[in-house]
Amino acid sequence: MVSPDDGDEDNTEIPVPAFIVDPDVQDGTLVREEAGWGGGGHFASCIISVDAVRSASALRRLDILKFFKKVEIPPRRDGGKVTRDEIYSDFGHGVRWGRRDMVQAASNKHQEVIWWLYRNTRAPRAMKSVLMVAVYNGDIVLLEWFRAKYRTQGLDPDSEDEDYEVGEEKL
Length: 171
Fold this sequence. Notes:
The chain has about 170 residues and is an all-alpha fold. The protein is built from seven helices and two strands; from the N terminus they run βαααβαααα. It has helices spanning about 50-60, 60-70, 85-90, 100-105, 110-120, 125-135, 140-150; strands spanning about 45-50, 95. It has a two-stranded parallel sheet. Helix 4 packs antiparallel against helix 5 (about 110-120).
């Protein structure tokens, strides 16, 4: 494995799907960080970091997020995290869907990434931060989505439906 401090770092571009997103690269180029990975379609089980998920979200790389979901070890019924035994037994890969991956997507107005993460991943979300970013950016599309998803009496003065409480998700 090449050390991050090593000047001879292998930055060969590889085709998507790839599992490493270099957070220092702003143009969305994927780079290989492990010299031993041959790109043959299979790689040793690993934990895909929160930073990789956030970077893919910020770069609007829905293809990478879908790849992470495809290779992820299915969530446990008890809500617990993936165990090292499952990872080392080559059942799949642990994916650390983060609280702020949707915030990264919202910061760049990537609504389709936000909606996909919301529908397809089970993770605690910093929804208040996503809302604040949408307001700050003037992202009307995302604000309308929030309005439809999280209706409150204070948000819609014409709403007569008293079943909705502040912050309760509309089903």
